[in-house]
Write a structure and sequence with these properties.
Subcellular location: Mitochondrion
Largest sheet: 9 strands, mixed
Distance between the termini: 21 Å
CATH class: Alpha Beta
Radius of gyration: 21 Å
GO molecular function, one term: CDP-diacylglycerol-glycerol-3-phosphate 3-phosphatidyltransferase activity
Enzyme class: transferase
EC number: 2.7.8.5
GO cellular component, one term: mitochondrion
CATH architecture: 2-Layer Sandwich
Strand order of the largest sheet: 7-8-15-14-13-9-10-11-16
Helix content: 25-40%
CATH topology: Endonuclease, Chain A
Number of domains: 1
Oligomer: single chain
């Protein structure tokens, strides 16, 4: 079990366990066997197989599978070993093996980060034969990783790649392109928000979870405030879009995904995340990013994330990417600013205060 070096001392002692993930966690999702691996944002708990929407991409590639296997093995050697313990109320104990690559993050966060940097940095360097190409050479897969809390200096690859892509889309020559961005927990980092707002295209879509499709809907305690918090963040994004591009007020459409209500019969939650980019003169995506990241400040500062960027000119694959993208919008409805003024969408002061407190003590949504 991975433990962030950011949650130690008084923070670890006093921050409630229900929300302490806001200080960083292992967020990677990798499911591999032999020469195949699934890259996803799903945790694979029971609801992912019944009533929780997410994305799953299967890669049949020895090279890609081996790469992420090495990532997995290295992070495992930076983590606690879980051993059964019937004498412990939790049923297990956490041990720090002497064979690990660093001291425990609870004993020496600085030495832990230094050792993690030494172990992880070589894995993020370009390989001599990268990126990985399919046999037809019309599709390339770029592995991505974001290990910011463990790297000094930070040599993570996901945020730099997305930054480069979106800056390219801000050029006038890409005015006829389009993008679709989704995150179940909509709170893109300030940098990413500005990049999305600065693209030159006019047919862009953001998909996020309705409060009634948010995994925290109906939760007790502080976590029950999160659906309203994400509603507030969605509204602020729309406000920023209107201010940023007043002459292109329709350049970005915000849609909320809802399929029933969480906790009721037939109710689903929404957990998909990703980016699809269609280049000029083509409605079908040529680029997509799939992985574990929610693209938040926390994703790029506190969590461990992995994913892939797929670049393709293959007609069949592009058609399937379009089907995936459009399929997510089947249960999504456009939101206007007026929709956020309805009584059921108003955000109380307790939500705003809770968001402020989390930010002040170093956490993030």
């Amino acid at each position: 079990m991975y433990h962030t070096p950011n949650l130690t001392g008084l923070r670890k002692k006093y921050i409630p366990k229900r929300i302490n993930e806001g200080w960083g966690l292992q967020h990677m999702k990798l499911y591999g066997m032999d020469d195949e691996i699934i890259i996803s944002g799903a945790n694979l708990s029971e609801d992912y197989f019944t009533n929780r929407q997410d994305r799953y991409h299967v890669f049949s590639s020895k090279e890609i599978t081996q790469y992420f296997s090495t990532i997995h093995d290295t992070v495992s050697k930076l983590s606690f070993l879980v051993t059964p313990d019937q004498q412990n109320p939790s049923g297990y104990t956490l041990e720090w093996p002497s064979s690990n690559l660093t001291p425990s993050p609870l004993l020496s966060p600085e030495k832990y980060i230094n050792g993690a940097t030494k172990s992880l940095t070589p894995l993020l360097l370009p390989l001599s034969n990268s990126p990985t190409s399919t046999q037809s050479t019309n599709t390339r897969v770029y592995p991505l990783a974001q290990f910011t809390p463990l790297l000094r200096p930070d040599t993570s690859t996901e945020l730099p790649l997305i930054t480069s892509l979106l800056k390219t889309l801000s050029l006038p020559t890409f005015k006829e392109s389009s993008w679709t961005f989704t995150a179940g927990y909509f709170n893109p980092s300030p940098l990413l928000s500005n990049l999305l707002l600065s693209t030159s295209s006019d047919k862009n879509v953001v998909i996020t979870a309705s409060p009634w499709a948010n995994g925290f809907y109906g939760s007790k305690g502080v976590s029950g405030l999160l659906p309203a918090a994400y509603t507030l963040l969605s509204r602020r994004f729309l406000e920023s879009a209107a201010k940023h591009t007043p002459s292109r007020s329709q350049a970005i459409t915000l849609k909320e995904w809802r399929r029933g209500t969480v906790g009721e019969e037939g109710g689903w939650t929404y957990h998909a995340k990703g980016l699809w980019i269609s280049l000029p003169s083509s409605p079908e995506p040529s680029i997509t990013i799939v992985g574990s990241s929610n693209y938040t400040k926390r994703s790029y500062g506190l969590d461990l994330e992995v994913g892939t960027c797929i670049v393709t000119s293959d007609p069949g694959l592009r058609a399937r990417l379009r089907e995936e993208r459009d399929g997510l919008q089947e249960f999504a409805s456009e939101m206007k600013m007026d929709d956020f003024t309805k009584p059921e969408r108003r955000v109380g002061i307790q939500v705003r205060v809770a968001m402020w407190i989390v930010k002040m003590v170093g956490g993030a949504l």
